């Protein structure tokens, strides 16, 4: 009798760069499994850096920095003790440097944050879970986990373009964290806590957890515990520092 050989199973096709961007939002487990098998990071990383730069430029142009720093400095007892001439000198320096700092942070801030987050969780999962992941894999996962911040950046750009100069609060222009809804006069530590509870950031952390778990499901069973545990420790440290 003749035997019929079964066809060899075809290798699963890799998801392209555009598919990975959308897949991180709508099919994260499958997408991050594919990223772990064939890491890439350029598409989300370059997009995030570009959009962050645009946000930084618009903030620098749309913010009334003198009014902003007057409001910030008035919360300091040291500022109240200054003479009017000293206050003016201090405000002039702040207003001069603020747009440049906003541009610089837009240029390198997002890039640095993605790198730091990738380093922290790469080390944490390898140390605590024995995941054995390379940094290239960790960086690819982290870069794609930041896709929600691309959405936040686009929304922020639209809002800034629609706002008139002087109508922008650089800390709360997007109103995506709890601090944006706190009343004036809220203690500084509580405002810092509210700033940490941010929609797009929590969404990003959830994708980081899913991504690392998909990279090595045998070793990483509960990625959320490590990801949000480290984040909570960082938030507690920031709030404690603000309270002091």
Notable characteristics:
mainly alpha, 71% helix
What features would you describe in this structure?
With 244 residues, the protein is mostly helical. The protein has one domain (17-243). The protein has helices at residues 17-26, 28-37, 42-62, 65-73, 77-80, 84-129, 135-145, 147-162, 188-196, 199-215, 223-243. Helix 2 (28-37) packs antiparallel against helix 7 (135-145) and helix 10 (199-215) runs antiparallel to helix 11 (223-243). The longest helix is centred in the middle third of the chain and has 46 residues, at 84-129. The mean pLDDT is 91.
Please compute the radius of gyration using only Cα atoms. Answer: 22 Å
Tally of discrete structural domains: 1
Count of helical segments?
Answer: 11
Largest β-sheet summary: none
Question: Could you say which structural class the secondary elements and strand pairing correspond to?
Answer: mainly alpha
Strand residue content: under 5%
Low-confidence stretches: none
